[in-house]
Structure formats: C-alpha cells, structure tokens
Amino acid sequence: MKLPWRSDKGKGKSQNSEVRSQNSECGDAGSYESVTIVESRTSPGVRFTIARMSFARRVELMQRIRELARRADFLRAGQAPEDKMDASLAQAEIERIYVAWGVRAVSGLVIDGREAGPEMLAETGPEELFREALAAVRAETGLTEEQRKNS
What we know:
Blueprint: H1 15-22, E1 35-39, E2 47-51, H2 55-77, H3 81-102, E3 103-107, E4 110-111, E5 114-115, H4 118-124, H5 127-141, H6 145-149
Antiparallel strand pairs: 1-2, 2-3, 4-5
Helix pairs in contact: 2-3, 3-5
C-alpha cells in the first residue's frame, strides 16, 4: 500500500506533489484563501464575502443547528397547523444561522444610510439578497439538496 505522504524514489515525483497538483483549491505554492467573494446576480455591485468550509467550521455549524434541525424535522411530521408554523419558524432560524455563520461581509449595499453587514442583511435587508447570500453559503458548505432540506 502506498501512502500519500511517502515518496516514490524511483519515479522522481513524490505522491505529495501529485496530491498538491490535483488540489485546485490551494492554487499556487500551497496558498489558500479562507473566504471567497460572490457577486450578486440580483443586485449589481453587491458582493458577499463567504467563509469557506473547513473541518472546524463544519463542526461549529453542525453544533449550532443540530437541535433546531431535529426540532424542525419533528414538527414537520406533525399534522396540526401550529406544528407546521413552528417547523417553518425553526427552518427560518436555521437559515438565519447559516447566513450569520457564513457571510463575513457584504459590500455595495447601503440600508437606511449605513453600509450593510451580515446581521443587517438578515434584519432589515431585502429578502431576495438574504436568500441569495443563503444560497452562496449553502453552496460553499457542499450540502446536497436532500441534506439542505434536512438542515
């Protein structure tokens, strides 16, 4: 068995360099940006700075939404209208957590005369921009459609 950190002396190229060259995320010389910039499609000039996923950030996100996701699943299974309403509220709170967790900055958006940030986007910003930021965060988390429905 060949391990990725062991070199192949006979081939002149180490497994490590092959792994690095296949990893497009790191770019040149192993550099890595912990955020990515996403241009708004609905509001020209607005840009979201989205935190990229890491192991620790994934754990943090799961810890933040775990109980709410369980509660939302439980309530969605109920038949009463108030259960459905409570499930929708839990889902909305999960979405707010995603945006607060993943959006590091918002540029090009002024709300009530002030430069908007992630919290202001959720509190008083246009809902379509909030939804766009949410989609960008979810895309960065790499969740499948089924996982998104359950989170």
